[in-house]
Amino acid sequence: MRMYDLIIKKRSGKALTREEIAFMIKGFTDGIIPDYQMSAMMMAVYFQGMNEEETLFLTLEMEKSGDVLDLSGIDGIKVDKHSTGGVGDKTSLALIPMVAACGVKVAKMSGRGLGHTGGTIDKLESFPGFSTEISIEQFFKNVEQNGISIMGQTKELAPADKKLYALRDVTATVDNMSLIASSIMSKKLAAGADAIVLDVKTGSGAFMKKTKDAFALAGEMVKIGKNAGKETIAVISDMDQPLGSAVGNILEVKEAIRTLRGNGPKDFETLCLTLGAHMLVAGKKAAHVEEAEKMLYDVITSGKALEKLARFIESQGGDSSYVYEPEKFDKATIIEEIKAPENGYISRINCEEIGNCSLVLGGGRQTKESRIDLTVGLVLLKKKGDYVTKGESIAVIHGNDGEKTEIAKSRFLNALTFSDVKPEEEPFIKGIVKE
Ligand code: URA
Fold first, then answer.
1. Is the C-beta atom of 59 inside 6 A of ligand 1?
2. Annotated catalytic, 187?
3. CATH no. for residue 26?
4. Are 33 and 170 members of one domain?
5. Whose CA is nearest to atom 3 of ligand 1?
6. Each residue of 227-267: pLDDT tens digit?
7. In-domain check, residue 431
8. Which of 92, 183, 186, 358 is labelled catalytic?
9. What is the pLDDT of residues 139-158, one digit of tens each?
């Protein structure tokens, strides 16, 4: 078999067979097929697309290009959750303790933040002493005993995707539905859970800017999951403005704690209840989502979800007293209000730019090696649809460097559009995709 012939085949719109896809992925992972041939193939796929079967084969071949986690040693149905990424997305911090407090086990490998979106591990490391660098034995033990563990990605999951994603990133071939779906699902399948709940974001802070594209991506991923024998459900949620109010690591951790105490922002609580309900149903702890939502609500009001977070932090070396006394977290040295420059409704928020403000302040990573400042970020006091009067506080900025804080402030204001007309209210949850 020759890569040259496969490029011609795909270029002319024909479907590749499983053997051909296996040859291509193995050859590329092993360094036998060079980047320039794979780039040509990716561009051919970009223009000609892949059918459902090819997309599944590509996913499965990328999944088995590295380690595949075996979670069968842990009793019960293990449910994983994945977000396509967004601004202020602290969902796992509140959702996972809620779900675990209802009896569904979560064994998760997570990553750090890169670019304008944050990462769960960085947020968890806001708790002094907390570590995701634990042994696989400890990981399993924590899940058995406490129902939760999150470890850093030490095993090489789907290395073919890692290499291919880096190539797509520089050859303008990222935004193809089959390629995105297979990239995400190959990693999720390799992570070993029995069921997968996906949070597919749409809007100006999301990868999929248009709702119809988010539905199409969700549909592709759900089909792959089903064909791979894993129950997969996708929730399409709004990312046209930051989730909740807080953007920035410690600020988001505090907001997640507030939410577990029943005082969280409405949109964030809705998202946790919706995703959590599907996780409980997939984990066979509830018969339907209404029952599941009630169970989740109950673990918030009883304090069990908060307690679960505290046990989880402790089980990985962290100081759990911060869960009950969040005022102990470090604070930025500059904390200033941002005032509305004019009267009007906030009609649009460039959400990605709000994520960039946190990056400018030092809260995000420009490269994998960058150190991040956990204390900086923004708290929005007003959101889309709110009326503001000139001079009224609309956000609070947290910074440690005067110049960077001024830049972020000005970029924040430029990211907002004010209007005399109240914008139409959009549903926060846009829909659910499942088989
Ligand atoms: N996230 C991924 O993991 N892969 C893609 O292709 C796009 C977003």
1. no
2. yes
3. 1.20.970.10
4. no
5. 184
6. 999 999 999 999 999 999 999 999 999 999 999 999 999 99
7. no
8. 183
9. 889 999 999 998 876 667 88
